[in-house]
Amino acid sequence: MKYSLVELAPVTPGGNKHEALDRALAAAEEAEHLGFYRFWFAEHHHVTGYAAQDPAPLIAAAAQRTSRIRLGSGAVLLNHYSAFSVAERFLMLESLAPGRIDLGLGRSTATPLIDHALRRDRNSQQADDYLDQVQEIIGYLHKAFDRAHPFAAIDLTAGIDSIPEVWVLGSSGASAGLAARLGIGYTFGGHINPDLTSRALRYYRDGFTKTPFGTGTPQAMLALNIVAADDEEQAHQLTWPARALRAGGRDRPIPTLEQARAELSTSAKAQPSTIVDGVIPPQISGTPATLRPQLEPVIRESGATEVMVQDMLTDSAARTRSRQIIAQALHAITT
Hints:
Elements: E1 2-7, H1 17-34, E2 38-41, H2 55-65, E3 70-73, E4 76-77, H3 83-96, E5 101-106, H4 112-118, H5 130-142, E6 165-170, H6 176-182, E7 185-189, H7 197-207, E8 220-228, H8 232-237, H9 240-248, H10 257-263, H11 266-270, E9 284-286, H12 291-302, E10 306-310, H13 316-331
Parallel strand pairs: 1-2, 1-10, 2-3, 3-5, 4-5, 5-6, 6-7, 7-8, 8-9, 8-10
Helix pairs in contact: 1-2, 1-13, 2-3, 3-5, 6-7, 9-10, 12-13
C-alpha cells in the first residue's frame, strides 16, 4: 500500500511562518526516512494558520534535501494561473529532480477579496475553464495538441528528459470523470467529504480510459486526516486542534492542544474520531493496534491504491510519532 503526506506548514501560536516552513521542509526529510511515497505541499492564500502559500518553491527546496521521495502540489489552484505558467514551472521542477515531481491540480476559492486580488484580468467576468486548463497542461507536457491548435508549435519540454506526473484533486466527485477520461491519477478529499468517498473513487475507476498521459491503470488516491499515538485517549485528543480551528475560525494560528481543550465544548471533544461501520469521521485517530483495522476495510471498499495523509500537528514529537504509527499501519495493508 502506498502512503503519502500533504503538508500545510501549520503556524503555531506565538510562532511565525519562517519557523513553520523550516518544520515543513524537515518533515519532507522525515517522511522520506519513514517510507512515505510522496510529499505534497498545499496552496492556501492569505491564511494566518498555514505557511504553504505556493507549492513550487517548497518543492524546489525539499528536492535539495531529499533523494527518493516524490514531491508535488496538493494542489496548484488552476483558477489563479495560466496553464502555460503552471506547465513551465513544473517542468523546471522536474529538471531539478528528474522523475520525482507530481503536479496535483485543483481549484478553490478564498474570500471574494483575495480571489479578486489574485486575478490578473479584473475587468472581465471570470469563467470556469478548469477542464480546458487541465487539458491544456496535458497538451504542453505530452506535446498532445492537435496540429491545428494555436499552441501546437510550443515545446516546453525541449531539453527535459522526463515530465511531472499529473493528478486531478477533488472533493465533490465532479472531477473524477475528468481524471478518468484523461487516464491520469485522481485524488479524492475523503477528509472533506467522507460520505462520497467510495462513490467518487468507483466512478473514477469505472470510467478510466488508458491514455499516454498516465500510468495506464487507475491511480485512486484517498486523502484522509489521520493522527495517531500510543494510546487511544492521547490519539483522540490530537484531533482537537483541528476541531477547534474549524469551530473558532480559520484566520488564526493552529490551536495548541491546551487551547483546543479550553475552547471546545464537551460534546465537540467527544465527537467520534474512529471509523465505525465504514463511516469516516472528519478526523481519524488510532494507535499501533487499532489504526490498521480501521483503515483496511475503507481502503478495500473504496478501491484506493494510495492514501494521502493530512494532519495539523504542530508539536514535533507528537507529529513524528503519529507519522511513524501511520506509516507502519499503512505499510502493513496489501491491496
